[in-house]
Write a structure and sequence with these properties.
With about 525 residues, this protein is α/β, with parallel strands linked by helices. It has 14 helices and 25 strands. The protein has one domain: FAD/NAD(P)-binding domain (3-Layer(bba) Sandwich). Helix content is about 25%, strand content about 20%. Strand 11 and strand 12 form a beta hairpin. Helix 2 packs parallel to helix 14 and helix 7 crosses helix 12. The longest helix is centred in the C-terminal third of the chain and has 19 residues. It starts with a helix and ends with a helix. The N terminus is likely disordered. The structure holds flavin-adenine dinucleotide.
Length: about 525
Amino acid sequence: MTEASLSALVPDREILEDTIRSTYDFIVCGGGSAGCVVARRLAENPEVSVLLLEAGGSDRVPSIIDSTQWMWNIGTERDWGYKAQPSPTVNGRTPLLPMGKVLGGGSSVNGSVWARGHKHDFDFWAKEAGDDGWNYESVLGIYRRIEKWNGTPDAHRRGSDGILNILQPEDPIPLVEGLIKGAEAIGIPFVDDINGAAMEGEGGCGLPNVLVQDGNQRVSMAATYIHPFMGRPNLHILLCAEIVGLKFSGKRATGVTFVRRGRTYTVGADKEIILSMGAINTPKLLMLSGIGDQKELKRHGIDVRQHLPGVGKNFQDHILLAGCCWEYITPEPPRNNAAEFVFIAKSDSSLPTPDLMPVLEETPFGSEVTAKQYDLPVGPASAWTLAPGLARPDSRGEILLNSSNPLDAPLIFANFLSAESDMKAMLRCVEMCREIGNSDFCAPYRLRECMPGDLKGADMENFIRNAAGTYFHESCSAKMGRDEMSVVDGSLKVYGIDGLRIADASIMPAISTGNTMAPTVIIGERAGEILKAAYAI
Ligand SMILES: Cc1cc2nc3c(=O)[nH]c(=O)nc-3n(C[C@H](O)[C@H](O)[C@H](O)COP(=O)(O)OP(=O)(O)OC[C@H]3O[C@@H](n4cnc5c(N)ncnc54)[C@H](O)[C@@H]3O)c2cc1C
């Protein structure tokens, strides 16, 4: 990224501390994939005052702007640095759970894949919420409105003049053609648009959709929804502002407390507070504020404001294996987002909807255990990995407080592979990835299979437990629904509390099929629609 292209970006226009007002109409907590969308939609009305608080800093960083560098943000100050608690289901390991800590949140540090979810996902959300506003037909309307899809036109499903520039990676590495043919040979059809009709049926294989423009420039939710609105007098944006508590008057949320550069501030919300801090920090703040399972709250001496046993429960992530890996004959540097091939398929043809979503990683990719066990080649261009992944895991995790100190990381029990059905699906997924990678179609790109090889029975299961980790899709930990474990209703209101809604990946009743940013943007858009209607703004 050159200085010239950097300076062409909209400059940061966060407000100065002495201009913070004592109250706003709305406070949006967390400027990530959903928070940027909600703040923008509310601020579109110049009569409405909005404060957007974000714990991370500016997104004007080369490793964010250049979407091909996404993985270099992991482990930096732009990542919350979370880790799962040790679990026997992954042989006692503690997989990393990276989450973006910067304006734009995950959308600023992610792999730029735009995966819209399956029809079944949204129809299930609508059923759980008891609200057709969440069903596939309604959600298609939002996608058509916000997308600027540059691929094969599909007027019913895809938008062409929205604000999000969406492409298929151009000029992918030649291996992608081999993988497509290998997948077709085992019955997974190539589809021209992996977000089109395939996501109403059996899935397919092909290139992902990616959010980029002008070469590899990232199209994040901060860049699209917020940068053009910076400097508007009714939208105040404060970076490096870590929210540590909510204020209440009885059962009504009235304000937010945050810490910035060592100073503590409290700001009021005349209308509502929207939590968009992601699937780990949203349930954490709820619990710190006395909203959660009363047993868990009492354990930390927190007064119970509202007993909601579902807070922090139902945690989900697509489980990804690091992975099935082959050494190149001729080294090939990664291109585009370094993940130019995906397939969505069923592990068992009797399933109603696809449950597998492996992805190509154009590098050697091992876990901290498998990378040592196997002789993986060195250097990003030396090998490629077809990483098996689950689209509809049955394993459920939970998030608990470590203490009542808001600055302490919570305890995250990811429980990957705790459901037997997930191991069964993963075994089939590894088999399919190996069939594709070892097919004649991939022979021109394959010197040898590095990992896992033809393991059987317990040995293969052990490999899977050593290789399993996050797909970076933490979600579902404050689910929308109508049963006693639900945290929000169909209009995203927290049960039992006034003036408080949640709009982020934590409200998904079940994780979507495919990467989670696009459905989270839909959640942000729905929140905008719902709030605009509720307040006639
Ligand atoms: C490395 C990585 C790669 C990924 N790749 C893809 C991909 O290619 N495609 C895809 O679809 N998805 C991908 N994802 C997932 C996707 O980015 C997330 O699902 C999505 O961003 C979730 O949106 P969210 O709004 O729920 O939370 P986030 O986007 O995580 O936003 C939450 C925001 O709240 C802020 N926040 C949290 N706590 C506080 C606090 N106490 N005070 C103030 N602010 C706070 C955070 O800093 C963050 O900015 C990836 C994620 C990561 C981390």
